[in-house]
Design brief:
There is one protein chain. The chain is of the alpha+beta class. It folds into 3 domains: about 170 residues, Glutaredoxin, CATH 3.40.30.10; about 140 residues, no CATH class; about 100 residues, no CATH class. The protein has a 5-stranded mixed β-sheet with strand order 8-7-6-9-10. It has a 4-stranded antiparallel β-sheet with strand order 11-15-13-12. α7 packs antiparallel against α9. The longest helix has 17 residues.
Amino acid sequence: MVTITCRAKQLHLTFFLCLALINCIVAQTLPDIKIGAPAPDAVFQNLHYSENKVFELNKQRGKYVILDFFSKYCTVCFLSLPKIDSLQKVYKDKIQFVMIGPDEPGTMETYQKFHNKLKLSLPVAIVDRDVFKTFGVHSVPHLVWIDRAGIIKGITISNELTRDNLELFLRDGIIQRDSTFLKAAQNSYDNKRPLLLYGNGGEDSNFAMRSLFSVWKPGMPLGSPSGVFDVVWKSYCRQQGIEPPAMFQTLGSSITRLYNYAYWGSDGDFIWKQDKKEQLYGNVWPKPVFEIRDTTVVQPDYKNGKNVYNYSIATTRIWKDTTEQLKEIMRNDLRSYFGYGVDIQFRSWPIWKLIVIDSSRIPHTYNGESKMIKNSKTGIHLQNLPISSFVQSLSKAIAFMDDVVIDSTGIDYNLDIKIDAILTNFEDINAELKRNGFALVRSTKIMQTLVIKDDNR
């Protein structure tokens, strides 16, 4: 139970929860909470992992507090826990960190597994989603820095959680955001409609075919990609009884992401996570190789708005397969702007191979209902499913976010398999695999690779 008092005027904006990601859309109602304003009064009941079971912000005067909002879907949040825990121990007499998670199925269970495995000392409060709205949380990780007078000194993501910033905080300084993700968009934006059409994110006029390529700047709206390359977006349109229009757009994208969309029709993050329909996973290396003179242009800088772009394309005339048509137009646009040459080559890359080391331990199925019982950051539990489903779940583990996992078991029957491990930890995962008769070994595989070069013409 949480009691909240907040007089700030509420604004309505829609943003997307992350990195890493991420890819989970939530609509949030944001109050006018800002640096220099008093923090909302909040009473967090049933605080876990703390001697005090109640945490009242208005009774923390004289103390420095950092509220760290997270969700079970946020990879960055869980990867940051060891760092936050170590900082809490260093500043235990000066700063109180409190983890704040939404009261949703699996949140406390996931956090508890990390707490036990990593031996954390951080207190955690599980709260109603209204608390997230009260504190203006529209994406996570989201840190609210509150000084000893109850005044907000910073609203940041976890990148700003440094020793220098903590020392500045203790001197009552303002913690500057090293990211513009928390800035509200100046114009409303609906990802189901083309960018700039009828005032969507700005003004535009009618058109028959349009491709818009622009430089992203701090304060501009940010949004997940929408359009023909996004299966979720197309499914949403059809659920609403709308025929998906021939369009695609992405806001705040790096050069790497733009080239992945133009050539593979998929972001590199989704290639890592297995795109069965296109059979990209294991056949395409998710990272383009840049063989160019100036590699600094590949690094996105959201703080200063460098090397970050918006791209939107829409047409009313389809003259071939929609996806291929838009990919072809996008490739031409990228070539026109950046001037790079592109070549698809076959190159050898390191992978993990899943192999059988003890066939007697392989968990054959008991022929129950075919279902995924659990697939989270704290384990995988599949019932009567093929080895391909298990490898797909395994490949999505945080420990393999930059690796490709390939099935080399030769198993052609279904399994009932349970992996009880923290999926950020390779050793933990491999120990569970060995218990089930499997192991991961390093190998290589030749995959299609997008090679981007300077055009010497």
